[in-house]
């Protein structure tokens, strides 16, 4: 995509990956993605903020040529992950006098990941500034959004804050700004998906970084994926809700059913919870987009895992989802297990509970059924739904 000016002296020079469908061989990308890199032109020096995935480096160089960039003094690396740093060796080859500006921890990671030599680095500390002439770069450490070495770069004269992955989204678009109502809806959903899949485990760290943004008061936030954010309050407001301890009266039911018995249980529980006035979302883990389930984990007050027993444990797809959930550490308040078994259902419950050991939530008494559920089993599920609905509504404030 062509170069885009985002403020008086700041330009987008990154690359769009229109048809990428998977990130880290794990995260689905229904809207593609972008690798955003930016140029800040000062009266004396020029800085490149982050780079792109190595396979997109030709687009970066094409944009630098289009912008007439003949000299780069600083390559700022806000985050060492290769989708942002991977083209640094090529930029250094093209601009051998440039220095890679980053913090001490990121420097070590860049040396490990890219084998960059010692002499190319300029290491900066918290709050330090670097002059470009009539523009300046100021650096703020932002560990654990989402790696330990991440930092933000602030250009006070432009009121632009570069946050790398933080506040980003996986969107491929030629409309760089979130300016239209249609874009706002898409940007909100894809930013929430990004938060759910990438940032949610670090929500307690994120709170103080949001406070820093409030203090700086940027007019533009330029992340390294997705759109450039002009409506800063809209996006930081959404993030503040997501990282809060508040939950919705929502129950999600990730499930697998091998011979319909567990499915009958899920359908009955879904119906009963709905009657109780609770938002309920069943997800068949064999066919569901896990990104959608992850987005609901951001707000859901409760998660009920539903599984048959397989080889003295839960179904592998259920355990895979439970493993991801355990890593994402959602703020859910209640956890439950239901399912159908042939010989021993308790081993399935133990398998699920051990996999979700990092989630600090109240466990409800499981509902297990041998084979196809009977009328008394549906009655137990109805009682389970009533108890869960009361608990969920009591703690929900969103």
TrEMBL record:
Every Flavodoxin-like domain range: 251-389
PANTHER family linked: ANAEROBIC NITRIC OXIDE REDUCTASE FLAVORUBREDOXIN
A Pfam family it matches: ODP
Similarity field: In the N-terminal section; belongs to the zinc metallo-hydrolase group 3 family.
SMART domains, A to Z: Lactamase_B
PROSITE patterns: FLAVODOXIN_LIKE
Descriptive protein name: Flavodoxin/nitric oxide synthase
Gene Ontology molecular functions: electron transfer activity; FMN binding; metal ion binding; oxidoreductase activity
InterPro entries to which the protein is assigned, alphabetical: Flavodoxin/NO_synth (IPR008254), Flavoprotein-like_sf (IPR029039), Metallo-B-lactamas (IPR001279), ODP_dom (IPR045761), RibonucZ/Hydroxyglut_hydro (IPR036866), Rubredoxin-O_OxRdtase (IPR016440)
């Amino acid at each position: 995509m062509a170069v885009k000016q985002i403020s008086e002296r700041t330009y987008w020079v990154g690359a769009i990956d229109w048809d990428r469908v998977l990130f880290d061989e794990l995260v689905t990308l229904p809207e593609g993605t972008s690798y955003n890199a930016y140029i800040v032109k000062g009266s004396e020096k020029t800085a490149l903020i982050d780079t792109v995935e190595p396979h997109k480096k030709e687009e970066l160089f094409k944009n630098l040529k289009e912008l007439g960039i003949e000299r780069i003094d600083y390559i700022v690396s806000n985050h060492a992950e290769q989708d942002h740093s991977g083209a640094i060796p090529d930029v250094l080859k093209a601009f051998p006098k440039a220095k890679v500006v980053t913090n001490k921890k990121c420097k070590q990671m860049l040396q490990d990941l890219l084998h960059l030599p010692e002499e190319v680095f300029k290491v900066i500390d918290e709050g330090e500034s670097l002059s470009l002439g009539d523009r300046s770069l100021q650096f703020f450490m932002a560990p654990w959004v989402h790696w330990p070495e991440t930092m933000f770069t602030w250009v006070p004269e432009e009121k632009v804050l570069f946050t790398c992955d933080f506040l980003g989204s996986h969107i491929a678009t030629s409309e760089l700004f979130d300016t239209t109502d249609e874009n706002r809806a898409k940007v909100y959903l894809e930013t929430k998906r990004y938060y759910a899949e990438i940032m949610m485990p670090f929500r307690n760290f994120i709170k103080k970084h949001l406070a820093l943004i409030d203090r700086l008061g940027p007019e533009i936030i330029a992340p390294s994926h997705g759109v450039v954010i002009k409506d800063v309050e809209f996006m930081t407001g959404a993030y503040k809700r997501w990282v809060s301890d508040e939950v919705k009266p929502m129950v999600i039911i990730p499930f697998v059913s091998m011979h319909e018995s567990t499915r009958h249980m899920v359908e009955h529980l879904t119906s009963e919870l709905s009657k109780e006035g609770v938002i309920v979302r069943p997800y068949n883990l064999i066919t569901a987009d896990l990104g959608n389930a992850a987005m609901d984990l951001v707000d859901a007050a409760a998660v009920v895992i539903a599984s048959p027993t397989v080889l003295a444990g839960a179904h592998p797809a259920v355990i895979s989802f439970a493993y991801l959930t355990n890593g994402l550490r959602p703020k859910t308040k209640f956890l439950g297990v239901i399912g159908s078994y042939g010989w021993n259902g308790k081993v399935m419950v133990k398998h699920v509970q051990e996999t979700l050991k990092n989630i600090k939530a109240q466990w409800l008494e499981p509902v297990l059924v041998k084979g196809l559920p009977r009328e008394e089993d549906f009655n137990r599920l109805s009682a389970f739904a009533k108890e869960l609905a009361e608990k969920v509504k009591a703690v929900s404030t969103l």
